[in-house]
Write a structure and sequence with these properties.
The chain has about 375 residues and is an alpha/beta fold. The protein contains 17 helices and 12 strands. The strands form 2 sheets. It has a 9-stranded mixed sheet, sandwiched between helices. Strands 10-12-11 form a 3-stranded antiparallel sheet. Helix 12 (about 265-275) links the parallel strand 8 (about 255-260) and strand 9. Helix 1 packs across helix 5 (about 65-75) and helix 15 crosses helix 16. The longest helix is centred in the middle third of the chain and has 16 residues, at about 130-145. It starts with a helix and ends with a helix.
Length: about 375
């Protein structure tokens, strides 16, 4: 069969079969696209393993399908239909096995295959908090600035914030829809999705004009997981489609990551449950890139501020710690507290005086007002 004949048949089947239908996927693998179409449109001979009711439903859909028209409508809207075997097909989608998309309707100029090679998904709650929106936007922008393609679902909440973050950074982003790519959903994101199509890519399994359903949203998530190197979840309750994406990523051998939130937040409960398993905790784009990126893409070391006391010689630090917070004490008492000789303590005290940590009061020594709180002072306050 010619490539165009295969494309026509797959466009036909995208109108007939639901996304992720593993039975149809098995038929395509076992008897081929052309034979499946012939049986649906011709003699009606059922493939093995399908009930009379289901076969009748598929045949009814097949009778109404017009793939030639779908391809023309798609072309007029600047959309192309990409099939397995095409040079633009992202081969990582083949990891889905019989649940692999029959084909993908792609709106936008870049090559889907090339963009998917270095991509990360960021997904999460639709009704996200201000914190969730901020983290999603920061991740989208940070990953885009590091040269990653940011993939999400185009929905309200975390998805939209992620796309906007990537777009504002002048980066690359892909929206994976659960409906026809010529029919932006949700309607409130029409402008955003159109902008994504201009600057990036909008893709989906469903033919032009097809509408979303709850089941299609869930099935769409497997494409997000398979297309990318890893999935980051920003805010998700226990029952969340974002968790479906992360778990699909884990099953496919991709990275699953979560951004922690308040322990009291129901919108972060699902993320925390994910993190109690095999997912990795991340807090910014550099940590995501370190996990999913190439060797050498390391996140910066995380540490608190360096205090002047941290730079002291250990022996001098022990003498400083032996001084109480407020009182003046003799060098003999300081030596006893530091576990050293009086002569060594005096030498260290003069060193500390030159650094501004202590001052002498007659025969005693005391911390200066500018000195950091000593360890001994912390103990006195407790």
């Amino acid at each position: 069969m010619s490539a165009e004949g295969e494309r026509l048949h797959r466009a036909f089947l995208s109108r007939v079969a639901e996304p992720g239908d593993q039975m149809v996927g098995r038929w395509l693998r076992e008897i081929g696209t052309g034979e499946v179409v012939r049986r649906l449109m011709g003699d009606g001979r059922r493939p093995p393993g399908v009930t009379d009711r289901r076969w009748a439903g598929l045949r009814a859909r097949a009778a109404r399908a017009d793939p030639g028209r779908d391809l023309v409508v798609a072309g007029d809207a600047g959309t192309r239909f990409v099939c397995p075997g095409d040079t633009e097909w992202p081969v990582q989608l083949d990891d889905l096995g019989d649940a692999r998309p029959i084909g993908l309707w792609v709106r936008g100029l870049p090559s889907l295959r090339m963009w998917a090679l270095r991509s990360v998904a960021v997904v999460g709650a639709r009704a996200c908090t201000e914190y969730g929106a901020h983290m999603a936007s920061a991740l989208g922008a940070g990953l885009a600035e590091r040269g990653w393609v940011v993939v999400s679902g185009g929905a309200y909440g975390v998805d939209g914030a992620t796309h906007r973050g990537a777009l504002c950074a002048g980066g690359a982003t892909v929206a994976v829809l659960a409906c026809g790519v010529d029919r932006p959903y949700p309607r409130g994101h029409t402008q955003l999705i159109n902008r994504i199509a201009e600057q990036g890519l909008v893709i989906g399994e469903l033919p032009p004009g097809d509408h979303p359903t709850p089941t299609r949203f869930i099935l769409r998530n497997r494409v997000i997981a398979a297309l990318t190197r890893g999935t980051v979840v920003v805010e998700a309750a226990y029952r969340s489609g974002a968790l479906v994406t992360a778990r699909a990523a884990q099953r496919l051998g991709r990275y699953a990551m979560g951004v922690p939130g308040p322990a009291t937040s129901a919108l972060s409960a699902g993320v925390h449950e994910l993190l109690r398993g095999e997912a990795t905790l991340v807090t910014d784009a550099s940590e995501v890139a370190e996990l999913v990126g190439d060797m050498g893409e390391l996140a910066p070391d995380r540490r608190g501020p360096v205090l002047p006391r941290d730079l002291l010689d250990p022996a001098a630090a022990r003498v400083l710690a032996a001084l109480p917070a407020r009182e003046s004490v003799s060098s003999a008492e300081i030596a006893s507290g530091a576990g050293t000789t009086r002569d060594d303590a005096v030498a260290r005290l003069y060193e500390l005086r030159s650094l501004g940590f202590v001052e002498r009061h007659g025969d005693g020594w005391k911390l200066t007002r500018q000195a950091p709180i000593s360890v001994g002072g912390d103990r006195e306050r407790c």
